[in-house]
Every structure is written in structure tokens, then in C-alpha cells.
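Hi all, posting the design record for the shared folder.

TITLE: backbone redesign
STEP: 1 of 1
STRUCTURE INPUT:
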């Protein structure tokens, strides 16, 4: 795993030692060096780095002030480097990954680099999980938006089962736990509630105009209503069926016209 590192320290010898120790790792690229907080802020805003080795006490803005200016959420993985160990608690309060005291020892730095790689690997795994969840959510939403509706229904009829083309159904009537399918001159009983059928059939073609009635929109010839109360629909066959106010609204919506 290659890492881009930024070194921030006002002491040239401290920067040189850290640069020398990091050079022993072929997978570390020194992205830059900063002498004060102002330069650190400018460098972080200009390019992205994986890890920042940040001195706490620097001219102008110190390490904690840099974090305050950039914001904890926008900081790269941060390792504080200082000659004073009494800042340790405050360093971890701003979510620093580690805390190194000067002079930095090679063995201690090696352990820190291992923790850095573990943190980056964990963050990448979490990001991958989030991407997968987002992808699955998108797929599920797309599938819901392209729901396939049945073109035929299987209706048990005594010792035999009958297939009924959905487009041939004129209207459907509720009958307790059954639904009565009216198909031309035939009447067939299906063991599904009208509520179940209303959720299964294409709402653009079959509208529940009353709690006990679903109509095939193509079979409707007239809509009769009084004010905004209940009314009725008239099929091409001349049959008149009850219609609720909600049913009228859904029927008009299915025809593609706005309600008024």
C-alpha cells in the first residue's frame, strides 16, 4: 500500500530525521514539507495526502490550530510529533491516530506506519460496503420502478385450472376472501382478495373505483358523478358500477388527465 505523507515541523533537523526514517519504506512518498501551520493549511487545501506528521508547536498556527482551521472531518490521518508528551490527551481528543515524541525512533515509527495502513484498509473496506449498499438500493429502486405485472391469471375451476388473459377481464368484484372475475359472459372465482389483486394488477389499466370493485379502464365508456361524492362508472356493456370519490380520482389519473 503506497502512502503519500506530509511532514510539518518548524525544526529543519526534525524534518530531516523524519524524512530519513520514512525513506526506509519504499511505499512512502513524501508529498511535501511545511515549516508552519499556514503552510500546512495551504498544502492540505491544494492536494490530498494519506497521512500528516504534524508538529504541535509551530510559529503562527500550531498543530491543534491547524486541525481547528481544516476541521477534524477533513483532516487526513494525523500523527502528532512533538518534544512534549503532556499534549497526548489533547491529541487523541482531536482523533489523532498516534502520538510520537522527539527524537522519533525507527521502531516506534514502524509501529505507527502499521497502524496507519490498518486504518486506511479499514476505511476502504467501509467505503466499499457503503458503495455496495448504495448500489443494491439503486437496483432495488429501479426494479420497483419497472415492476412486471401479470398478463395471465391461473384460476382453479373444479377439477381443472383455467388461464385467463388479464386484458380480457371486464371488471372484478369483491366476494369476502375471493374475487369474482367478470370475463365477457363468464364469471370465475379466484381465491384472492380484491386488495391483493389491486396490488398485483397494472394500476394504469385496472383501477379500484370502489372498495369492492376494480374495473378495466379500457372497458369504461362513461363516468357519472354528483358533485365530489360517490358516483358510478358505465362499462361498454351498459353495466353501471359504484364509484367512490377516491376511485374517481384514480380513474382520471389512470387516463392521464389531471383532476379538478
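Okay, here is what came back for every position:
SEQUENCE:
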Amino acid at each position: 500500500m503506497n502512502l503519500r505523507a506530509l511532514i510539518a515541523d518548524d525544526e529543519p533537523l526534525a524534518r530531516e530525521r523524519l524524512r530519513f526514517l520514512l525513506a526506509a519504506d519504499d511505499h512512502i512518498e513524501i508529498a511535501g514539507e511545511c515549516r508552519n501551520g499556514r503552510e500546512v493549511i495551504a498544502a492540505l487545501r491544494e492536494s490530498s495526502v494519506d497521512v500528516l506528521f504534524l508538529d504541535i508547536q509551530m510559529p503562527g498556527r500550531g498543530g491543534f490550530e491547524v486541525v481547528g482551521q481544516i476541521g477534524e472531518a477533513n483532516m487526513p490521518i494525523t500523527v502528532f510529533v512533538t518534544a512534549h508528551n503532556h499534549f497526548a490527551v489533547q491529541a487523541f481528543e482531536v482523533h489523532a491516530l498516534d502520538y510520537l515524541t522527539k527524537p522519533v525512533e525507527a521502531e516506534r515509527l514502524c509501529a505507527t506506519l502499521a497502524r496507519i495502513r490498518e486504518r486506511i484498509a479499514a476505511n476502504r473496506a467501509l467505503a466499499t460496503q457503503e458503495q455496495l449498499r448504495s448500489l443494491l438500493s439503486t437496483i432495488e429502486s429501479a426494479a420497483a420502478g419497472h415492476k412486471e405485472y401479470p398478463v395471465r391469471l391461473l384460476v382453479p375451476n373444479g377439477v381443472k385450472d383455467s388461464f385467463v388473459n388479464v386484458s380480457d377481464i371486464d371488471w372484478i368484484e369483491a366476494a369476502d376472501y375471493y374475487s369474482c372475475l367478470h370475463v365477457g359472459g363468464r364469471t370465475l372465482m379466484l381465491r384472492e382478495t380484491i386488495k391483493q389483486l389491486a396490488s398485483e394488477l397494472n394500476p394504469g389499466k385496472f383501477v379500484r373505483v370502489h372498495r369492492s370493485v376494480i374495473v378495466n379502464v379500457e372497458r369504461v365508456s362513461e363516468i357519472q358523478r354528483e358533485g365530489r361524492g360517490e358516483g358510478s362508472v358505465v362499462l361498454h356493456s351498459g353495466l353501471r358500477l359504484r364509484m367512490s370519490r377516491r376511485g374517481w380520482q384514480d380513474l382520471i389519473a389512470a387516463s392521464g388527465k389531471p383532476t379538478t
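COMMENT: Residues 3-142 form a domain with the Rossmann fold fold (CATH 3.40.50.2300).
Let me know if anyone wants the other runs.
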